[in-house]
Amino acid sequence: MTMEIDTPPDSGEILSPSNDIIFECRGDISPETLESTEAVFRDVLEELKEEWALETMEPFAVEVFDNSSYRDNFSGPGQWKYNFLLKSPDLTKLYINTDIFQTIPEDVRGQIKHETAHIVINQAVGDDKAYKKSLLLKEGLAVPDEGVNTRLVKKIKQGEIQGLPNPIDCDNYKKIDGDTNKEPFTQQTDYLVIFSFCDFLIKHVGHERIKKIILALNEHEDLVTAYKAVTSEDLQTVVTKWQDEISEQL
Ligand SMILES: [Zn+2]
């Protein structure tokens, strides 16, 4: 059957954001589950593209798994109880275990936003190598939600950590601690520290300069020198300002 339309749409019409994501089902996924998964991804992607001023993007794939297919394909220590999302190393594909909707419903959007942010920021920066240089920026800039400060403050008040760690140490030691069998990464102290700091940093310098700082990592030894080269400011000064802001909430 040939369908005809009277008036063709204007060229340059903004296409639905779904064109940026190719969804594939793995295992037993109900139409409702697929629909709600797609809805969250689309919502989050729209927000991220605006935040990072990414007008057009290379499409990426989302493989939507049921619990048993996900566990069959991806196993880790103790099966990573709270691991429901993974990304491919080249940042073109995400894998989601839809069990997340039942297990940690309050965290679904945050986790999806974090993983999708990796793809968006990488494309907005346009340089894979630079994007992966600073662990602090790579992980921290992918802020999952606005509740990170509140959760961090709660952890400090409950005595789960003593004082505020310096986020720069994340790059110095090249690691982020946390136990995915105990709690989701969006609740883990080390992640909360870098999310909270990077959220502060984004507000402090803005998205455009953040991209410049990431690109400057190609020519500088580390984040501290790259940051100084772009902003003429010491990164430690920003750390202190952020520590003061968090301390006021304690
Ligand atoms: Zn991540």
Topology (elements, then pairings):
Layout: E1 21-26, H1 31-51, E2 60-65, H2 67-73, E3 85-87, E4 93-97, H3 100-103, H4 108-125, H5 128-131, H6 135-140, H7 148-157, H8 169-173, H9 189-205, H10 207-216, H11 223-231, H12 235-248
Helix pairs in contact: 1-4, 7-9, 9-10, 10-11
Bound molecules: zinc ion.
Residues 114, 118, 139, 142 line the site of zinc ion (ZN).
Please characterize this protein's 3D structure.
The protein has 250 residues and is an alpha/beta fold. The protein folds into two domains: 16-125, Zincin-like (2-Layer Sandwich); 127-250, no CATH class. The longest helix is centred in the N-terminal third of the chain and has 21 residues, at 31-51. It has helices spanning 31-51, 67-73, 100-103, 108-125, 128-131, 135-140, 148-157, 169-173, 189-205, 207-216, 223-231, 235-248; strands at residues 21-26, 60-65, 85-87, 93-97. The model is unreliable at 8-17 (pLDDT under 50). The chain has twelve helices and four strands. 50% of the residues lie in helices and 8% in strands. The chain is globular. Helix 1 (31-51) crosses helix 4 and helix 10 crosses helix 11 (223-231). The chain binds zinc ion (ZN). Residues 114, 118, 139, 142 line the site of zinc ion.
